[in-house]
Structure formats: C-alpha cells, structure tokens
Design goal:
- It contains seven helices and 17 strands.
- The protein has helices at residues 6-16, 43-51, 186-194, 198-206, 261-264, 268-280, 286-295; strands spanning 54-57, 61-65, 87-91, 99-105, 111-116, 124-129, 154-157, 162-167, 181-183, 209-211, 218-223, 229-235, 238-243, 248-251, 301-308, 313-318, 324-328.
- A nine-stranded mixed sheet has the order 1-2-5-6-7-8-11-12-13, with helices on one face. A six-stranded antiparallel sheet has the order 14-3-4-15-16-17, with helices on one face. A two-stranded parallel sheet has the order 9-10.
- The protein is globular and about 55 Å long.
Length: 332
Amino acid sequence: MRRTLPAATMALLLALTSCTTAGPSGAPNSVPDDMPNASRQDAAQAERTMASLRRVDDLPLYEMTYVGAYDPTAGTDATPSSPFGCSLFVAAGDPARPLFARNFDWDANPALVLRTDPPDGYAAISLVDISYLGVGADPTGDRRLLDAPLLPFDGMNERGLAVGLAADDAATVRADPGKPTVGSVRILRLVLDRAATVDEAVAVFSRHNLDFDGGPALHYLLADATGASAVIEFVDGELRVERGTGSWQALTNVPVAGVSEQRRREDHRYGQIAAALSRAGGVLDATAAHRVLASVRQGHTRWSVTYGLRSGEVRLVTATGGGERHYQLPMS
C-alpha cells in the first residue's frame, strides 16, 4: 500500500476518537470516555470479553473473544472509512480445500485476533488494527476494545465466507440517498455477520453506500466455501463485480475490473502472485500459500494470514517473526 497519506490518517484517528475527551496530559480519560458505542452487551458479557484479552506476541498481537451482541451499524453515517490493504488471493484449484490468503501492510500498530459470535449473525474470526479504536500499545482494561467488532481488516465466518480489502486510488463512490452509508472498513463486519456466500456478500455491498472519506478508496476480495470468488470495485461511482472464473483470483493495489490480465501483471506483487498460482493450478495448502505471501512481503507488512474456507483453519504470521499461530473456527 502506498504510504502517502499521513494527514488523512491523522484525520481518521481524530474522527474515530472524537467521542473521547482528553485529560490534563492530553491522553484520553479511561472512565467514562473510553466507553464503546457499539456494545449491546450486559455488564457480565462485557467483563467476560475484557477478561479474555491476552497478549500473544511482540507485534504486539492480542487475542480476544467477544461475548454477546453489538450493533454493527452504530454511528455508520458519521464514521469515516479506514484506508488499508495490500496483497490478497484466493486459491480454489482444489474444490475440497479452497483457501483465502492476505498480507496486511501498514503502520507499526498493535493488532488483535478477534472471535465474534453475535446472536443475530454468523460466528467469525477477524484481525483488527486496534490503533484505529484509539487504543494504545497496552490495551489492558481499555473498554474501547468493545468496539473492536466494527473494524475487521480481514476475516472469515463460520460459513466459510472470507473478505479482505486493499487500497485502490482509482475508486470513486456516488451516494444513493435511499441507502444507508457505512465506513469502508465497517462493511466487512456487515458481510461477515450476514453473508454465507459470495452472492450474499455482493448483495450486502449493493445495499449500502460506502464512505471513503478520511483515507484512500478501497476495493475488496471475497471468497466462499465453494471456491467462488469476486472482486468488488467502484468505477466512476458505480459498484462493479469482477467474478473469479478460473482456479484463483488475486488483488493488490491496482484495479482489476475491465483490466486485462496482462496489464494487471505489470504490478510487481500481482505478477508474482499470479505466476505462483498459475504454476500451482490454484492448488495451495496453507504452508504453500504462506510462501507466496512471504514472496510479496514488504518492509511494512504487519501480518500474513490464511483462511481455510472449508476447514475453518486460520494460520497467522506477524512481522515479529515469532512463528505461526493457529486458530480453528468451527464451521456450520
């Protein structure tokens, strides 16, 4: 991802923390100004969620299990988008083992592996850059973590639907006054909660306006347990869907809708991913997929993750090189 927007990033940070007030030192007050606005938990559920937080490596990377309900639409018309994403692909050459893979490239911020199981949506596991909640390097006791479900940067739900994002400088959106507006990262939460297939995920996108203010515009890669995949892009203000037609589909920071494969491969990272997936016929296990991700890692890659779309297996490697972490999402 291009690192050219410090002013926009600062504006985003200010916007996401605008509900807090600073104490004499300039730091946010811990009570009551760190209260979340999306939590619909009772007190016991909130305490269980906070008690589940633990640090697992020196990125720093944390894990947390969210207990109870949240409102994924809280403040959607007022919350600006967040600009992220780098290298993603779907390997679907083996119908029994479709896999979604992703490098997240951005600033050196703490991250969170988040498990959610909302009463009115699908269980999911996702990754969150918690600095965009206004949370610091040590989030212990910071109740703003109860808004962590609102900002998944990639993830997979129990039905095997996975989604991730990447910056797309060419994208533009045009608002439809008859649709609700949500932030361009928040839309991932709505997809994970509500969609079981690529078609259903496309429908979620279609029902909402996206807010790209506060950072670069984005495009998105989707995949499901059948191996179906699609890229969502916004061209001249209109949503475009580029469906996968072969054994793999990839996305970096260049547009793909209506662009020839030869032109896409002029992008260095896209070209390397495409070459590897073509050689493999789109058949990669998690170990091989991580080798492909490693080949396109950058100096600011924060994490590399693979999601087994039928197995529910998640494998995560962070920038600290502390080894591979494994998670298992029970699939329904």
